[in-house]
Amino acid sequence: MARKSINAIIGEKIRELRKEQGMSQMSLAALVGVSYQQIQKYEKASGSISVERLEQLSKAFQISHQRVLPG
């Protein structure tokens, strides 16, 4: 079985956290300052995510950035 990329793991975590908090992609995007399409890309691991953006997402979720990172 192929190992998941770190972007896929982070994307799954973003989706999980967003759904746990009852947020839509649009509402999360508004909090972070990006388009909802960009949130879709993060969740589908269609590219990499910057450390700065991870910090913004963590603030939007009101959690430690360490909860978004694998391991």
Number of strands: 0
Q: Fraction of residues in helices? A: 55-70%
Which outline best applies?
globular
Mean pLDDT, rounded to whole units?
A: 93
Structural class: mainly alpha
In DSSP terms, counting alpha (H) and pi (I) runs of 4 or more, how many helices? 4
H/E topology pattern: HHHH
Uncertain segments of ≥5 residues (pLDDT<50)? none
Termini distance? 19 Å
Any idea what the radius of gyration is?
11 Å
How large is the share of residues in beta strands?
Answer: under 5%
Major sheet size, sense and barrel closure? none
List keywords for this structure.
about 70 residues; mainly alpha; about 0% strand; globular
Question: Could you explain the architecture of this structure?
Answer:
The chain is 59% helix and 0% strand. It has helices at residues 6-20, 25-32, 36-43, 51-61. Helix 2 crosses helix 3 (36-43).
